[in-house]
Design brief:
WD40_repeat_dom_sf; repeat; mainly beta; nuclear pore complex; translocation; Methylamine Dehydrogenase, Chain H; 25 strands
């Protein structure tokens, strides 16, 4: 099997690429301050440029798609080193490639004192909300309070993840957000990673009716342990009927870690390390679960994409390796038969 390069046409480094809910659209963001959206041509399986536009005044770090149930047209959120999060909506009547097909709905996170490193829409069952985190070490949640007015977003939550303001060094500070995708947890949960620490938060009932904010209250319920470097990526697996959660991280120390999170009667999580996988040998930049939460993919500085699966002995093993290098010794996909 050969790998076909995806040519985005960005002029500088690409920092993030995301599929939409149906996997038929891709958004990419770059240091060139532009967002590009591509549509899948079902007849040729080629990706066709939907539109590109200058979205921010500095490099764009992350992009996130909103669930399609909230609008008849597609919605994106992007975050940047210009200290803002912006929300965009597609205008299907505009010509593709015109630069006018996506319009700005709102600009958020102006309360931040530094770059915004990650933005992520919450699962649709939690409502139309998003979280963002930046170098000021504060995790913020914004909610759309008027279903008929998507330009109106309210800051409902601020959580101080770190107490020290960090310098704005490109890619030297790692922050990330991952919401728990399960509808059946006792409380709303999410992970925020900051540097070499992973914090899991859960919602708690408000104590009084005169609380300062109208949104949920959150408290830290556990940490993700044992990291010896910056956490570059975190992924929370879909539950698919399991009575526990799986959370994976990719770390600068070269390890992919898989944690089992068991929900306690009070809504807390008990964390157990299931696997520490160092096949990459070098820094791990991204981890991601499949739709059933049974296969984990990881990508690292070794130029390889690895797929991990749990065998009948409850051991996580590498089931295949995809060589993504452009070097002449690239051999495509190697399959591990021991799984």
């Amino acid at each position: 099997m050969s790998l076909k390069p995806f040519i985005t046409g960005h002029e500088e480094l690409i920092h993030d690429i995301k599929y939409d809910f149906y996997g038929k659209h891709i958004a990419t963001v770059s240091s060139d301050q532009h967002i590009k959206v591509f549509d899948l041509d079902s007849a040729t399986s080629a990706w066709i440029l939907n539109d590109l536009w200058k979205a921010h005044d500095s490099l764009i770090g992350k992009v996130s798609w909103a669930h399609p149930e909230f609008s008849s047209s597609k919605i994106l959120a992007s975050c940047s080193y210009d200290r803002t999060v912006k929300i965009w909506q597609e205008q299907p009547d505009e010509m593709p490639g015109s630069g006018r097909r996506w319009t700005k709905l709102a600009t958020l996170a102006q309360e931040s004192y530094g770059p915004i490193y990650d933005v992520c829409f919450a699962p649709n069952h939690l409502g139309f909300k998003l979280g963002c985190v930046g170098s000021d070490g504060i995790f913020r949640i914004y909610e759309s309070v008027e279903p008929n007015d998507l330009t109106n977003w309210v800051l409902t939550t601020e959580i101080a993840i770190l107490t020290l303001l960090l310098p704005a060094k490109s890619l030297q500070s790692s922050f990330g957000i991952e919401w728990c995708p399960s509808k059946f947890t006792k409380t709303e949960k999410f992970v925020v990673v900051a540097l070499d620490q992973g914090f899991v938060y859960g919602s708690v009932p408000k104590q009084t009716d005169d609380d300062e904010t109208s949104g949920e209250k959150y408290m830290k319920i556990c940490n993700l342990p044992e990291h010896n470097g910056l956490i570059r990526s975190v992924s929370w697996a879909p539950s698919m009927g399991r009575n526990y959660h799986l959370i994976a991280t990719g770390c600068k120390d070269g390890f992919v870690r898989i944690f089992k999170a068991s929900e306690q009667p009070n809504g807390d999580l008990r964390i157990e390390t299931l696997a520490k996988l160092n096949d990459h040998k070098l820094e791990v930049w991204r981890v991601s679960w499949n739709m059933t939460g049974t296969i984990l993919s990881s990508a690292g500085d070794d130029g390889k994409l690895r797929l991990w699966k749990c065998n009948y002995l409850n051991e996580w093993k590498c089931m295949s390796v995809i060589n993504t290098s452009n070097r002449s010794d690239s051999r495509g996909i190697e399959t591990e038969k021991s799984i």
